Amino acid sequence: MQEPVTPRTPLMRRPTTRRALLAGAATVAAGGTAAAVVGLTTRTSADSSNGSSLVVPGLAADATKSAADELKKPIEDPKVRAAHLLRRAGWGGSAAQIAEFAALDRETAADRLLNFESVDNAALDAKIAAANFNLTTPGRGLDGKRPPLIRDMSRWWLYRMSYSQKPLEERMTFIWHGLLTTQQSQIGFQRSKQMITQNELFRAHALGQYDVLLKAVSKDPAMMTYLNTVDSTKEHPNENYARELMELYSMGEGNYTENDVRESARAFTGWRLTPPTKVQPPAGLSEKERDEYLDQLWGAYEPAFVLNTKLHDSGSKTFLGQTGNWGGDDIVDIIMKQPATARFITKRLFSEFAYRDPDPATIDRLVEVWNSSNHNVKAVVRAILTSDEFYSRRAYRALVRSPLEFMVGAVRGLEVETDWLTVEQSAAGMDQRLYEPPSVAGWPGGEVWLSSGTFFGRVNFLDATLFPKNKAVAIPSLSSQATAEATVDEALRRLVDDDIAPEARQSIYAYARTITNPQERAAAVAYLVLASPEYQLI
Amino acid sequence: MLSRRDFVKGGVALVSIGTSAQSLLKGSIAFAAQNGAYVADPNNKKILILVQCAGGNDGLNTLVPYADATYRSNRPTLGIPEADVLKLEQGFGLHPALTGLKGFWDSGKLAVVRGVGYPEQNYSHFKSMAIWQSGDPKMQLDNGWLGRTLEKLESQEHDPFLGFNIGSSTPDEMRTPAVSVPSVRSPADYGVKVGGKLADTSHARTATMLKLYDQYPSSSPYGVLLETTVETAISSSKMLQEVAKTYTPAVEYPDSSFGSGLSVLAEAIVGDLGMRVGHITLGGFDTHNNELDAHSGLMETLDAGLTAFYQDLQAHGKADDVLVITWSEFGRRVQQNANGGTDHGAGSVLFALGNGVTRGLYGDPSNLAALVDNGNVPYTTDFRRVYATIIDRWLGVPSEELLGARWDPLGFVA
After folding, report:
1. Under a CB-based contact definition with an 8 Å cutoff, are residues A72 and A388 in contact?
2. Can you tell me the distance from the alpha carbon of A401 to that of A530, in angstroms, rounded to the nearest whole number?
3. Nearest CA in chain B to A394
């Protein structure tokens, strides 16, 4: 090895840089005085959810304990607790909703979100009806005026997330979409409407028994196409669905063998969908008319599940140690009895709502709820949303805001009206598209959302949507404020719990004071608060 | 033992003592320097370009064992006819779409590693990718294998482009808290816009927005990540826009996102942005059905992209500095399935391309008569031997510490 060419500066006389500090801290830690160092932070070594380590070896035990105790402390301010709940279990609260929930105890607050069956959603339904979305038919039609299918499918769901009075229903629907994934682009453009069918299935099973959801999604047309169930035969079982069912949708990797994959794949053979109606277009149509004729057929196609007994392997299979003539539903039943499934799904739900890497004891408690409720998702979510962990400092701003949470949180928090018409082009740089998770494993989330490229994606989305054609949009909740300072304070209250570094507040004041037109000032303030580091966390 | 994450934890605490974030973000000292083991050679400008073929590339239809009877009998419709194979040596030949790579073989710039994999193959995309990305089947080493390498390559004058990714988020193999890696998908959108157009960061609104990141306490949640990400974004965006003014591709890149991504990597190389490790992904290799067409398309995209990339670098006098390595998380089953596709497999092949490559087939061929796990290609060559070759011989960093063990390099880089 070549000798170093650059002379090395002694550690202590290095310029004060981030890296030098990091290196220096390591030395300190190794020297046994890390307790003092770590003690200076409010977020500590016990917090692994914000990208730091779980344990600092060599750290004095009492310091670790006091640090962990600090994070166990509850979020105190009732308004902040309410905003936290509405962000995590919904998509963010309006000022009035935050005030309403701040007056409730945690059980009542959770139940108000969970018991949504009888909640009136007429306003949303009316909005959706008025928008007249195309949710079925590919192609632009003979007059070229039919709205693009995928864009309208996205708008339809964004409307729901933004304006539903049952935000937890939409949150659960999205959680299932991210867990029981299908990629629209992989099932074929003509079948896109099947993503809506699947979406309605997730909504119908938002808070039900997980067994029922898993059996239903196994027979869902989009899923069956996506993971090749529709191609699987007795002679040549396709393993794609069987593998992901266990690895991603229930037990997690490492809890089954390759032989279990092969055996369970046999159980799903012969699972088919009724085919599209084969109608020959009438003679004499132009090419355009012919295309439209076929687009209409695809738009009307409603596939149904069928078992083709000739293609189904009805022989004996040994799966996870149990032998029988198992079919697909039996496989799900066996999976649902596995302790690994209980841990995997409850941990996933907790990570969606509270923070990643929960303590084993936390999951132990949720597993008890899971088992005693016969795998009832509502019971588990209720246990999470009423837990000490959920309202602890460890959970506060412990997750990175996804692009969807970024967009919908702004609309709900600022109470603005949008038709979401430009969202497809302006949101692309943030890297999250509805119906299009990046892989069968869904969106990885967490730190992955923060990269140099997606940072530009976020701020440029704000530029495009708050200043379309260089003109400020109307944000009445902010532009109605009398002064620059009041505009800023209102935005901070609505979007980041009024919790921002004091110097940062002054910076936003200073910029707001340079703008006199209330509408322009409101949009500029919204831009800055939505682009702030605080708003990137949830 | 302390992990690097612990260092960062401690660092975050120290930062809160009162040093302004701005001065912390200039970046200068290599992590490695602190333990006195190693300082990167500033004269080494060699660049690695890592191409991830995501989804599990079918090694048997990439480097075809065209004379093998087992291959023929297991792939009645998916097997590539001997007459179509671009023959190399020892009964192996390239997929017919790899005409550019065949040219590089003929001129001595291409190596193929056979039977590459690891013990106890994991058939999950995600677990297997994670193993390749960490460089450790036991998953006990911190961060990604290139992240650990980047820490060693970090110099006094931190280059924002030391590691460079084409895509939207940092790939796991490049992940390390110590070095922030720019991720660019579209250069036209890589910067802060005002009124829909890229604008200088001195614009008052942008300047205020960036100030919020300076003023965000490093001890707050995700403090270091937020600051370094934004700092890297701003500085790399300025550099890239500067280079774009002078760089003109010497060839026409294929009209694919893979092709345009490679041209951005070439731009960074030609512009001398200090890149040592570049990363790009080509997805779609999970060919469970209709593989023949899908895989051909992928081979064509890969071949056309790499060929243009090489020619562009050659024309700019940079080809000697660049080594291209492809990888995929696993190969595919020998026997085709009912849908004209193949299911997840084990050992696969990878390519090494560049002027510094010693042509040849490396690693023993997998024995198709002795399959493992009910019909999979046994691995013969541990992937860490490939990594050791790259790290030791190309990037000039001792690999033993980075891989947790000493692995014999392969001969494709002398």
Report:
1. yes
2. 11
3. B221
Q: Which two tokens stand for residue B162?
A: 């030391």
* C-alpha–C-alpha distance, residues A352 and A356, integer Å: 8
Instruction: Name the strands in the sheet holding B86-89, side by side, starting at the edge strand that comes first in the sequence.
Output: B63-64, B92-94, B86-89
HEC states along A176-211? Answer: HHHHCCCCHHHHCHHHCHHHHHHHHHHHHCCCCEHH
Confirm if A529 and A477 have CB atoms less than 8 A apart: no
For residues B403 and B387, the answer to whether their CB atoms sit within 8 Å is yes
Is A504's CB within 8 Å of B211's CB? yes
Q: Determine the Cα–Cα distance for residues B210 and B199; give it in Å rounded to an integer.
A: 14
| pLDDT score of A119 more than 80 | yes
In sequence order, the β-bridge partners of residue B344 are B332
Is-contact B293 B342, C-beta < 8 A?
Answer: no
Distance of alpha carbon B309 from alpha carbon B251, whole angstroms: 8
Residues B297 and B183: beta-carbon distance below 8 Å: no
The domain locations on chain A are: 106-339, 403-536
Q: Tell me which fold the domain B48-191+235-403 belongs to.
A: Alkaline Phosphatase, subunit A (3.40.720)
Residue keyed to tokens 């304070």 = A489
B399 phi and psi angles, rounded to 5 deg: -90, -20
Using the predicted structure, report yes or no on whether residue A11 has a pLDDT greater than 80.
Answer: no
The two tokens of residue A133 are 């979305």
Task: Kindly calculate the radius of gyration of chain A based on its CA atoms and give it in whole angstroms.
Answer: 26
Per residue in B321-337, pLDDT (tens digit) is 999 999 999 999 999 98
**Amino acid found at B125:** H
Cβ within 8 Å of A, B 378-397:
396
Neighbouring residues of B5: CB distance < 8 A, sequence distance ≥ 6: A51, A52, A53, B142, B177
* Among B22, B139, B166, B208, the residue to mutate for chain A (most A Cβ within 10 A): B208
Running DSSP on this structure, what letter comes out for residue B393? I
Strands (E), A312-413: 317-319, 322-324
pLDDT of amino acid A47: 37
The DSSP call for residue A91 is S
Total count of residues recorded for chain B: 414
Q: Rounded to whole angstroms, what are the CA distances from A304 to A132, A205, A273, B286, B342?
A: 26, 18, 5, 27, 27
| pLDDT (mean) for B17-37 | 35
Return the beta strands (E) in B37-84 as ranges: 47-53, 63-64
Candidate from B1, B42, B192 with C-beta closest to A5? B42
Q: Give residues with Cβ within 8 angstroms of A430, minimum separation 6.
A: A403, A406, A454, A457, A458, A461
Helix (H) or strand (E) holding B327: strand B322-327
Nearest-angstrom CA–CA distance, B340 and B342: 7
